[in-house]
C-alpha cells in the first residue's frame, strides 16, 4: 500500500505503528502525519463510489437509526466545527460513539470528515473526527442524498 511506504519513510512501520499505546508516542509529530495518511485513504472512498450504492459498514442501518434518533436537527450538509468539537457536542457524541465500541473496528480512531458535503476534501473543508462520527455523518449523507453533488462532480471531471 502506498501509505505504508510513506510511513516507512518516517521510520515507522504502517498500521502496526498506529496500534501502539498512546503513551508510546509522547509528542512525536510523525504521528499526526500517519493519522492524516490513514484518514486520507478513508476520505477518498466517499467521492469515488456512487453514494446510493455505498455501504460503509455491516451496521449502516443501526448507525443511521441511532444517529438520526440522537442528532435529529444536525445539519449534515454543512457541519460546523462546534457540531463535533464543542464541550456540549462532545457530551452527546461520546455516548453515541461508545455504543459502537467492539462493533465498529477502531471506532474511536481519527479520520477526516468534510464539513461541507458539496465540496471535496480540502484543508479548509475537513475536520478531524472519530471513525464512528465519520460513518454516522457519511451514512446519513448517502441516505439523504447529500453526497450526490461531489460524486457527480467527480464523474464529470473524469
UniProtKB/TrEMBL annotation:
Domain Polysaccharide biosynthesis: 31-150
Alphabetical list of Pfam families matching this protein: PBDC1 (PF04669)
Higher taxonomy: Eukaryota, Metazoa, Chordata, Craniata, Vertebrata
Descriptive protein name: Protein PBDC1 isoform X3
Gene Ontology cellular component list: cytoplasm
Coiled coil: none
Origin superkingdom: Eukaryota
Gene that encodes the chain: pbdc1
Native organism: Cottoperca gobio
Amino acid at each position: 500500500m502506498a501509505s505504508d511506504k510513506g510511513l516507512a519513510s518516517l521510520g515507522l512501520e504502517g498500521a502496526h505503528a498506529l496500534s501502539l499505546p498512546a503513551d508510546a508516542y509522547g509528542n512525536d509529530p510523525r504521528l499526526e502525519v500517519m493519522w492524516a495518511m490513514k484518514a486520507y485513504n478513508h476520505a477518498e472512498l466517499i467521492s469515488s463510489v456512487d453514494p446510493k450504492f455505498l455501504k460503509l459498514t455491516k451496521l449502516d442501518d443501526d448507525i443511521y437509526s441511532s444517529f438520526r434518533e440522537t442528532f435529529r436537527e444536525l445539519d449534515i450538509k454543512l457541519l460546523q466545527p462546534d457540531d463535533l468539537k464543542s464541550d456540549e457536542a462532545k457530551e452527546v457524541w461520546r455516548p453515541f460513539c461508545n455504543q459502537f465500541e467492539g462493533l465498529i473496528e477502531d471506532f474511536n480512531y481519527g479520520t477526516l470528515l468534510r464539513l461541507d458535503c458539496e465540496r471535496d476534501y480540502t484543508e479548509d473543508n475537513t475536520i478531524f473526527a472519530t471513525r464512528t462520527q465519520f460513518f454516522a455523518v457519511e451514512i446519513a449523507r448517502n441516505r439523504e442524498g447529500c453526497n450526490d453533488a461531489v460524486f457527480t462532480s467527480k464523474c464529470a471531471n473524469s
